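Dear support,

I submitted the protein below through the web form. The confirmation email said the job was done, but the results page showed an empty box. After a refresh the structure appeared. I'm attaching both so you can tell me whether what I see now is the final result or a partial one.
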Amino acid sequence: MVPRRRPGPPGASLPTCYPRRHAPVMLGGQTGRHGASGHVLHGHDARPSSHRGDDAPVTSVTFEAPRDSARHKGGREAARGPRYRPAPPPRPWVGTALVVAATAGLVAVVAQGISVETGSELAAPGGVAIFVGSLTGLVGMYLALLMVVLASRIPPVERILGQDGLLRWHRRLAPWPLSLIGLHAVIITVGYAQAAKAGFFAQVGQFISSYPDMLAATVGLALMALAGVFSIRAIRTRLRRETWWVLHLYLYLALALSFAHVIALGPSFVGHPLARALWVVIWAATAGSVLVFRFGLPLVRSLRHQLRVAEVRPEAPGVASVILTGRNLERLPFAGGQFVEWRFLARGLWWQAHPYSVSALPRPPYLRLTVKAVGDHSAAVARLAPGTRVFFEGPYGAFTRHAQRNRQVALIAGGIGLTALRSLLEELPARSAPAVVVRVNRPEEFVFRTEVTELARHRKGTVHEVVGELGEVRFDARVLRGLVPDLARRDVYVCGPPGFVEHVTKLATELGVHHRSLHHEAFAL
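What the results page shows now:
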């Protein structure tokens, strides 16, 4: 059994993260006295029973400094600790500007590829095939670089699209560069074979043996095809996350191997130093965005904040919270609902980062994340030793208050998806009347029940539990309308396993929720 309290670094004391029964809830310095009412739907009979927050003991749910520590620092502000830094809101004009810039770049690439061709070159044997192959290669390479930029998680872009949005656009874009670059290889080989009056495979051998950097480009094409094949959903879902991640990194290697042959042999660049310089700048900017935002910024933040594991606390069967302590956490921009890519510097875990939601707003110098054991990595997190160093990347996600369009919200969680909604609920203003719906198979799977009830009570909200195995209890449009009658007039935030998210978003759409008022995040490894 993991002890409830363990000593942190010298001079620090652990926050009160476990509920303290019969103690007043302190949220923003006020005592919560508002009732959170709701219903519990049990799978065995599917009949609602009263579940009123007024009847539950009032509980402390925030990361508070102990009272003795507060006396030394003095005042109510010291008891609450330093405030965290709210994440800046998204700026839509940034997204518009980037779309315009990306489109202008694509037009410029096509125009450049067309402008360098002459009538005599097109009329020569194989001229048309070489032109088409060169143009498909240019466009394919530009789109591949755009894919990399999307994956680099540039903060202003990530705040607009969120991680789900970035990955969605990444997947939508992926077939085009892979297809175009494959066509480029085939068509341009046909063109050179026509010009040399040789066979297709003889020309392939000539390319590899005689043309500079062509062998590296061929290897790069093979790696790109490999990454594309393993990204097909039917194959991807059968791979461990770590395996897919390593295979996906081959795309970066493939682009690096292809760079030299594009500049040295591309018809659009031979004899055109300005075009060559422009593409060198594009490649350098792409590589720079990856190095800065995927490696540089996370490294700087990790070294600045010096996160370490202070304690691991069991919350429910298979669910544990990791309490972290660090420096200057009030300078880390964060919004409720966001997640972080965590890299625990422990044996077997240091080489990979995994996304886990922060289950409460930061209370410097403490931070809490909560993990359900669904794989090797998440199961190992519950065994972390106090003092383990933690590197991190983020916070990420547009699943925040900034996406809200209506005055009130409904928060719908499936299982461990409640962790993201728990921190989002904490950031909602008083008297915002949120409706919280939690779907779990068994009552003990409702983690942070007391915390969620108290947070909803303070905001004059309601909490509803839908409890039961699939097939035992209905969770359809009729049930959801009964729990939240005014759902169509609220923003709806949904978080949980992919199947649950898909099901609830479909129900919300049927009940009249506008697609711009529907926000979701799926938990899948």
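Response: this is the final, complete result; the empty box was a page-load delay. The first strand starts at residue 26 and ends at 27.
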